[in-house]
Amino acid sequence: MPHPYVLLSAAVSLDGYLDDTGPERLLLSSPADFDRVDEVRASVDAILIGAGTVRADNPRLLVNSPERRAARTAAGLPEYPLKVTVSGTGDIDPAAQFWHTGGEKVLYTTDKGAERARALGLATDATDATDGASAANAANATDVVPLGADLDWRRLLTHLHDVRGVRRLMVEGGGLIHTQLLTQGLADELQLVLAPLFVGDSEAPRLFGPGGYQSGRLRLLETRRIEDVVLMRYEPTAPGTGPLPVAADHHWLALACELAAECPPSDTAFSVGAVVVASDGTELARGHSREGGDPVVHAEEAALAKTDPADPRLAGATVYSSLEPCARRASRPAPCARLILDAGVRRVVTAWREPDTFVPGADGSGVLAADGVEVVVLPEHEERAKAPNRHLPH
Ligand SMILES: NC(=O)c1ccc[n+]([C@@H]2O[C@H](COP(=O)([O-])OP(=O)(O)OC[C@H]3O[C@@H](n4cnc5c(N)ncnc54)[C@H](OP(=O)(O)O)[C@@H]3O)[C@@H](O)[C@H]2O)c1
Ligand SMILES: [Zn+2]
Q1: How many of the other CB atoms lie within 10 Å of CB of 392?
Q2: Which pLDDT band, with edges at 50, 70 and 90, does 132 fall under?
Q3: Closest ligand 1 atom, CA of 53?
Q4: Burial of 393 (0-12, 13-18, 19+ CB in 10 A)
């Protein structure tokens, strides 16, 4: 699913805040930096902000320079980039300047939020024209796009790309938006301006909140002094493919151990649970031994069978298995280590190395590692992984 290039832009105080708690917007940047932001705006197809920023700052989000607007028009682009906002509730003041300045707008929201937004009269299109000014109205139209019960950033970015033709998206905050895009591995660049002042108020909005960041150690692309602020441009090293955070590893492995406890009992095979999880934390599939009445199916095999072999997320996914994937088996042509390699999965987290109970010297981890797959053993979960297998000979 193609997405636009996503450029996050923010100015931050030395103590990491985006704003203070006063009614006026805190000016963090310098005049020359506001002009630089104007230039970036002129270079993109769309600018996105969260509903929180519409409420707090009431911004117009325009390209202010007439020369830059003229250059856009000369290049066959709309005078202003598309303005995009995101709201779960759909509850945004219809009088906000966001709606009444610049060119086309789109509100991405939930199904419920779309009802609210329409009730507020936020959706407008050319057919609303009553004065014959339909062309001007079309250029000002606001599209309300419901994305389901919850707002999914991948769907939003795909919609912007495929339906609105957006290839370059500038995101101007606030903190909740930036945090989600970085934790979900969806940002391509971060342009951060550090302003030489302190906010010193823990109630103020922070730039980044807690979360499992999928950005790796960022690569520093550029530093630029602009009057008294410093611009830093960073690139996440592996958007969407970074290692899952440790806390998530424990969560998913604990789930795999719970699934192991659900297996129909057997005296001749292990009880194992497995979960396949994409790099953004989306569960792709789960399975357990002897699932669905198949007396020989293994947990990893059952889980992988539920994935789509063409799913590009498998390459960045992790297989969590309560027991190390098998290296050899009599009941099927391919052992689970092979199935994992064939699925293109490059990371396995397990709780328990396979004992010699059924297959002496089995080394599924070795088979995986020999092909470059990262295998992590978290022994904290070993007792839970063993629990449904206590009756087996040691
Ligand atoms: N210094 C800077 O560069 C800069 C830039 C931008 C903003 N700011 C400051 O940041 C503050 C606002 O930031 P903020 O973090 O509070 O707000 P925000 O990130 O602008 O917007 C948050 C809102 O966006 C909607 N939203 C975000 N993610 C969503 C999701 N996954 N599903 C559904 N809705 C979602 C929700 O709207 P609903 O509540 O409608 O559901 C949510 O309340 C302001 O003080 C502003 O001045 C500073
Ligand atoms: Zn197996």
Answers
A1: 16
A2: very low
A3: 20
A4: exposed
Q: Whose alpha carbon is nearest atom 26 of ligand 1? A: 87
**Cβ distance 321 to 300 under 8 Å?**
yes
Distance between CA atoms of residues 263 and 349, nearest Å: 20
Give the C-alpha separation, 55 to 389, whole Å.
56
How large is the angle between the packed helices 66-74 and 31-42, nearest 10 degrees?
Answer: 10
Would you say the CB of residue 11 lies under 6 angstroms from ligand 1?
yes
pLDDT in tens, 258-277: 999 999 999 999 999 999 99
Over residues 161-172, the mean pLDDT reads: 95
Q: ω before 174 within 30° of 0 (cis)? A: yes
| Cα 85 to ligand 1 centre (Å) | 9
d(CA 208, CA 186): 15
Name the range with the highest mean pLDDT among 207-211, 337-341, 368-372: 337-341
Could you tell me if the CB of 176 is within 6 A of ligand 1? Answer: yes
pLDDT per residue as tens digits for the range 217-273? 888 889 999 999 999 999 887 544 444 556 678 889 999 999 999 999 999 999 999
DSSP 33-51: HHHHHHHHHHT-SEEEEEH
Mutate which of 176, 193, 199 for ligand 1 pocket (most atoms within 8 A of beta carbon): 176
Question: Is the separation of the CB atoms in 174 and 18 below 8 Å?
Answer: yes
Ligand 1 atom with the smallest distance to the CA of 90 is: 40
Write down all domains in the chain, each with its CATH number in brackets.
Answer: 5-235 (3.40.430.10), 246-389 (3.40.140.10)
